[in-house]
Amino acid sequence: MKTIIEPFKIKSVEPIRFTTPMEREDILLKAWYNPFMIHADDVLIDLLTDSGTSAMSAKQWSGIMDGDEAYAGSRSFFRFEKAVKNITGYKHVIPTHQGRAAEKILFTIVGGKGKFIPNNTHFDTTRENVEFSGADAVDFPTDEGKRPDFIGDFKGNMNIPALKAFIEATGASNIPLCMLTITNNSGGGQPVSMANIRETKKLLQGYGIPLFLDACRFAENAFFIKLREPGYADKPVIDIVREIFSYADGCTMSAKKDALVNMGGFLALNDDTLARNARNLLIVTEGFTTYGGLAGRDLEAIAQGLEEILDEHYLTYRLRSVAYLGEKIIAGGVPIVEPPGGHAIYLDAKRFVPHIPPDQYPGQSIVVELFRAGGIRSVEIGSVMFGKYDKSGKLISPPMELVRLAIPRRVYTQSHIDYVIEILLDVYSRRKELRGLRIVEEAPILRHFTAKFEKI
Ligand code: F0G
User: Fold this and answer.
1) Residue 11 lies in a domain
2) Cα 255 to ligand 1 centroid, rounded to whole Å
3) What does the DSSP assignment read for 390-431?
4) Residue ranges making up the domain that contains 355
5) Which position among 14, 73, 383, 384 has the lowest Cβ density within 10 Å, counted as fewest Cβ atoms?
6) Residues 345 and 432 in one domain
7) pLDDT at position 34, please?
């Protein structure tokens, strides 16, 4: 086996700024120890997110010049619509400015008080959009999916027996639709198997509940199926992708991930009435039906990205480069969610800094130290992001305390990643020195974006 190389050459570059640990102490203090409040210019390697951070291809950039900016009936819309239909097969394609706008429209229509939306694991914006409508967002990860040290092929799967019991107890009429997030971002970037998608659909069909995919990382999920699920090794990725979408009635998509663009998303679905209602809302909140919240040029770039993402050389490199980071730090003893996910490595903060209790935000303390030591920006996915308070004001923590190192698509080379590995191993060797943090100010929803912290 030869080294798997980046399947592209670099045509345009962007300098990154070097700072000293002393400078970074000051930067952290000014940002209240919240990575979302650090200026991007002060970051050396930015692993905050894989969303909207992809490097676009020369063909995507030429699509940007070629975009048709007509208000109605733009040529770029038709190219976009064709590209989305090519992979999903859905009848209606509704462009939105990003994934959460598609979620907002969908749940405004189907959500509301007394309704429940099940999911393998809701992403934070999905959860907020469900709950903002008055409905309840409920997660059904598998037991394996909740165990960071368990090595399994499809730890993103839906817990089907638990979902069934929930539907029986709640009543199908209170469940307007069920979501399945591929790959399961909040659950460690882990894939969902084809068998699980098929069985989830079969269960829901019996109750007349539609299935919607949260499809941001559909191509990475499809390639995991090709690599790991019996019967798929010789199937072209496009066929696997089409099979995935064929089991669902619609999807929300953030094009900022697997469509390789900096902005965009869509809602795609089969139901005519739902589509009509969605388009009416779209016109009020996003824009006319043939551009949604986007410019014609954005639609061109998405259409092109949706073709490029299916390149198997790209997907081989993509999954391998994330696994490379994971394997090197596992070898150094660093506890992560295993096996490595498709778009990110998730450090297991509970095992990394067992001396810091959840209410002192162990993940956040690692995030802070990775930045201080190496200028690397990561994000906590644990009690900061998902923590809630009980009536007495006590923190209710989620099952896992993680730190996500998300890898932007086509942006960093192997030596950038080697540097990240060096910093991680250094911070891990000094883990006993890390201290917790307390929150001094926070917003009532999505608090992780703006919360202010201080060191304990
Ligand atoms: N669903 C999932 C699974 C996501 O990961 C995201 C975004 C969204 C929906 C919302 O899409 O940002 O276009 O509105 N995830 C980003 C991340 C922000 O960093 O994981 P959006």
Assistant:
1) no
2) 9
3) -TTSPEEPPS--EEEEE--TTT--HHHHHHHHHHHHHHHHTG
4) 21-50+311-455
5) 14
6) yes
7) 98
